[in-house]
Every structure is written in structure tokens, then in C-alpha cells.
Design a protein that fits this description.
With 326 residues, the chain is mainly alpha-helical. Helix content is 64%, strand content 10%. Strands 1-2-3 form a three-stranded mixed β-sheet. β2, α9 and β3 form a beta-alpha-beta unit. 42% of the residues are buried.
Length: 326
């Protein structure tokens, strides 16, 4: 996985969650707090999620094969989608069930100092992990808002870790609130209410992650800035006079497919057209290094065909069926 995959952030989150999960289960064993049990399962699920992201990053590095000629870059999207499913089922649904049971059969929290101490420790550890994820993301985010970064990032790992860490921090605060109210009032129902709030939070985060990673799995085009760079690089004003139409597709976070029909001059020889295509490919790769698979088809631009508009069954700007002035 490349640096843009956020490996450092994933490892930091994995280490934090393993330590936190162990401490939460110990606190549950001594206190009987359902919030602690739900948070322990949450941290364990998060640890598994980060392990899946690392596995996906490793598998994505495999070389292309005849059966998969465009490589395995989308493995990272698949594993990120699995993370959202696990977060929903193991984390969110378990917390909702545990909270319901706690409200139905409440009992006082024993040895209050265990859950409180663990929650304070967990908040510190999660804050460190969250800080690392923010630092890694800022290197790629640029001027985008956090919402835009999560929605439009092509590498799924950092948005996943960011949302997981954010959910973990908010969940810990909810758990601390539930445990605190249960201790103050002597009513264990508050512990169950805090657990249900954690479950709702995890389900919402899982749904957001599922929607975003599903879009990546279906295949997203290059970002607006990259498209503009590619368009500027293709046309040289000499042999390549314009782009008739172009499609881009992310084969993986760091691998882009570019397919375009380009207009060349009708008097150019085959050798001149071939040389122009090679030069255009070189310019595209220089402008957008992740554009690794490029297909350029030369054609003669026709005003008549272009005037037909965006007909899905026609090729915009394609060759006219009759003689026209070019």
C-alpha cells in the first residue's frame, strides 16, 4: 500500500484498538457494565477492520494476470466495504442488542473505578489514533472540507480510519456518560441507554462507509482537477486538435484508466498520428502520474455529428456519415 493509503494511520489505530479492547473487557469483567462490553466488542471489531484494510492493501499490490489484466487495485475497495459490513453487524447491532437487554434487565455497576479508568485511558489512546489519522489525511486533503474529503477520496483507508476513530471517541464519551449517570442515579438503565446510543452511532457510520465504498466499487471517474489536467495534456494544438469525448475510471486508488477519442487532422499520415498519440500519452502520464492505462483513438472531428448532442447510442463528435468540410 502506498503512503496515500494511510498505512501509518491504520497501524496506529490497530495498536490503539487492541490495547483498548483488552482493557474494556477487563473492566466489563470487574464491573458488569454493558457499555464496557459493547465498547469492548466495538474496539475488537475495529481491530479486525484495520487488519482487513492492511490485508486489502497487500493484496492490491499483486501483479496483473491474464484473468485480471487491469490488476487488483480494487481489492482495497472490497476490503473497505467489508469493514462497513462488520462495523454494522458486529459493532452496531451487538451494541443495540446489549443496550436493549440492559434496559430490560438493569443492574447496578460494580467497582465503578474500572470502567471510568478504562474509559479515560481509551479516550487518550483513541485521541492519539485520531490525531495520526488527521495528520495523514491533511497531507492529501488540501483545501477540501472534511466532508468533501470523505466523499471524494479515492483511497478508502483514510476515510474509514477517520470515521472509525471519530465514532470511537464519540462512543467513549457516550459510554462515560451512561456509566456516570448510572453511578449517580444508581439506575443501571442509563448504562443501557448509553449502549444503545453507541449502537446507533456505529450503524450510522457503517451506512455512510457502505455508501461511499459502494460508489468506489461501481467505478468512479477521476476527480475534476485530474480530468482538467488530462484534457489540457492531450491537446497539443498541432496534430491533436481537440478531444471528441473522454472517459476515465479508477482501477484502484492509485491507478487510473483513460480512454478518449481524439481529433486529428485529416491530412496527417499514419506515422504522424501514431507519433502524436505516443506524445499525448507521455504528456498525460506526466500531468497525472496515476494515469497508467491509456487508450487513445484517433478520429476526424465532425461538426454535424457533434451537433446531435449527447445521444447515448451515438458517438459525440464522431465521423459524419456524409462528406462535410472538416
Amino acid at each position: 500500500m502506498s503512503a496515500s493509503g494511510g498505512t501509518k494511520a491504520i497501524v496506529a489505530a490497530l495498536a490503539a484498538n487492541l490495547a483498548i479492547a483488552a482493557s474494556k473487557f477487563v473492566a466489563f469483567a470487574f464491573s458488569g457494565s454493558s457499555s464496557m462490553l459493547a465498547e469492548g466488542v466495538h474496539s475488537l471489531a475495529d481491530s479486525g477492520n484495520q487488519a482487513l484494510l492492511l490485508v486489502g492493501g497487500k493484496k492490491a499490490q499483486r501483479e496483473a494476470t491474464p484473468q485480471h489484466p487491469f490488476g487488483y487495485g480494487r481489492e482495497r475497495y472490497i476490503y473497505a466495504f467489508l469493514v462497513s459490513i462488520i462495523l454494522f453487524s458486529v459493532g452496531g447491532m451487538f451494541a443495540l442488542y446489549e443496550g436493549y437487554e440492559k434496559i430490560k434487565h438493569p443492574h447496578e455497576i460494580e467497582h465503578w473505578y474500572w470502567p471510568v479508568g478504562v474509559l479515560v485511558f481509551a479516550i487518550i489512546a483513541e485521541a492519539f489514533s485520531f490525531r495520526t489519522a488527521i495528520k495523514e489525511s491533511n497531507a492529501l486533503r488540501g483545501k477540501k472540507s472534511w466532508k468533501e474529503f470523505v466523499r471524494h477520496a479515492k483511497a478508502p483507508e483514510l476515510p474509514v480510519v477517520l470515521l472509525e476513530d471519530l465514532g470511537a471517541l464519540v462512543g467513549l464519551i457516550l459510554a462515560l456518560g451512561g456509566v456516570g449517570l448510572a453511578l449517580i442515579t444508581g439506575d443501571g438503565v442509563w448504562d443501557g441507554i448509553g449502549t444503545i446510543c453507541i449502537g446507533v452511532l456505529l450503524v450510522l457510520i457503517a451506512v455512510v462507509l457502505a455508501i461511499e465504498t459502494k460508489s468506489l466499487l461501481l467505478g468512479e471517474a477521476a476527480g475534476v482537477e485530474d480530468v482538467q489536467k488530462i484534457e489540457a495534456a492531450v491537446v497539443d494544438g498541432d496534430t491533436v486538435t481537440r478531444i471528441i469525448h473522454m472517459r476515465t475510471l479508477h482501477l484502484g486508488p492509485e491507478e487510473l484508466l483513460v480512454a478518449a477519442k481524439i481529433a486529428v487532422r485529416h491530412e496527417d499520415t499514419a506515422a504522424e498520428v501514431a507519433s502524436a498519440i505516443d506524445a499525448a500519452e507521455a504528456r498525460i502520464r506526466e500531468a497525472v502520474p496515476i494515469a497508467r492505462v491509456i487508450y487513445l483513438e484517433p478520429d476526424i472531428y465532425s461538426e454535424a455529428e457533434a451537433a446531435k448532442g449527447a445521444d447515448r447510442e451515438a458517438t459525440p463528435g464522431g465521423p459524419a456519415s456524409h462528406d462535410t468540410d472538416h
